[in-house]
Amino acid sequence: MTSAQFECQYCTASLLGKKYVLKDDNLYCVSCYDRIFSNYCEHCKEPIESDSKDLCYKNHHWHEGCFKCTKCHHSLVEKPFVAKDERLLCTDCYSDECSSKCFHCKRTIMPGSRKMEFRGNYWHETCFVCEHCRQPIGTKPLISKESGNYCVPCFEKEFAHYCNFCKKVITSGGITFRDQLWHKECFLCSGCRKELCEEAFMSRDDFPFCLDCYNHLYAKKCAACTKPITGLRGAKFICFQDRQWHSECFNCGKCSVSLVGEGFLTQNMEIFCRKCGSGADTDM
User: Could you tell me which residue ranges the LIM zinc-binding domain spans (predicted)?
Assistant: First the structure.
């Protein structure tokens, strides 16, 4: 190489006895190289000159001294890190800021470790335990109460009520009747076996019946309309001797005026107001 060839490709200054940089088979003095080719540091925004180490990540560049965690400012050189929202974080800061916290111990659940999720909260696998026996629940069935989560055997031992019909544990809900408990699906009409949990019902000798079965088997019939008298929802009815009437059916057999709360007369099986019955032979 001649002295004429040993020149800066950009400014043509002689490079004899000077530092230079070779790039793409071309020679550059240090000043020209830095001015033309230097990358700019993401942190300090200054050029990363040829005598500095250039650290690159996803087409972004940093001085070695600027390559730090944006939260704790510790160097990330040759250390693991995570990029989040265009920020670089060391693994400790990323875990503290972004990882889930254990609902029990309140400590960070480190990335890569197994965590349990239940009702929107997270636990370390070793913290997600039965409140009674303190054994890990894992993916086994559980029952939750205000006091904590329980494995099924412990819940049955400590809290469970048993269905009066099937004798199995009632884990939630249920129906109470005559101080006894039923599963909703076990609380059935004693006549037709229809579910009663969403139905109005009557009882007879401590047995529940749907209205149809009760009316068919036990209800008195109105002497006027012959329909069953149930007394549901406070409905009123009239009794006289061995006969019953709905209050709205207890009317004069001639003029149909209501006899509820009024004096009345009877003749054979008929009832009359005093006016209509005054001229007839009556029983009372």
Answer: 39-100, 161-220, 221-283
Tell me, rounded to whole angstroms, the distance of Cα 102 from its chain centroid.
Answer: 18
* 109 vs 45 pLDDT, higher one: 45
Dump the DSSP string for the chain: --TTTSB-TTT--B-TTS-EEEETTEEEEHHHHHHHH-EE-TTT--EE-TTS-EEEETTEEEEGGG-B-TTT--B-TTS-EEEETTEEEEHHHHHHHHSPBPTTT--B--TTS-EEEETTEEEETTT-B-TTT--B-TTS-EEEETTEEEEHHHHHHHT-EE-TTT--EE-S--EEETTEEE-GGG-B-TTT--B-TTS-EEEETTEEEEHHHHHHHTPEEBTTT--EE--GGG--EEEETTEEEEGGG-B-TTT--B-TTS-EEEETTEEEEHHHHTTS----
**Residue in 100, 144, 95, 104 with CA at minimum distance from that of residue 127:** 104
> Cβ distance 271 to 258 under 8 Å?
no
What b/e string do you get for 192-221 counting C-beta neighbours within 10 Å, with b at 16 or more? Answer: eeeebeeeebbeeeeebbbbebbbeeebbe
Beta-bridge mates of residue 266: 271
1 or 69, which is more confident: 69
* The pair of three-digit structure tokens given for residue 5, joined into one six-digit string: 């060839």
Q: Give percent above pLDDT 70 in the chain.
A: 93
> What pLDDT, in 10s, does the model give residues 157-195?
887 788 988 988 887 778 888 888 889 889 999 889 988
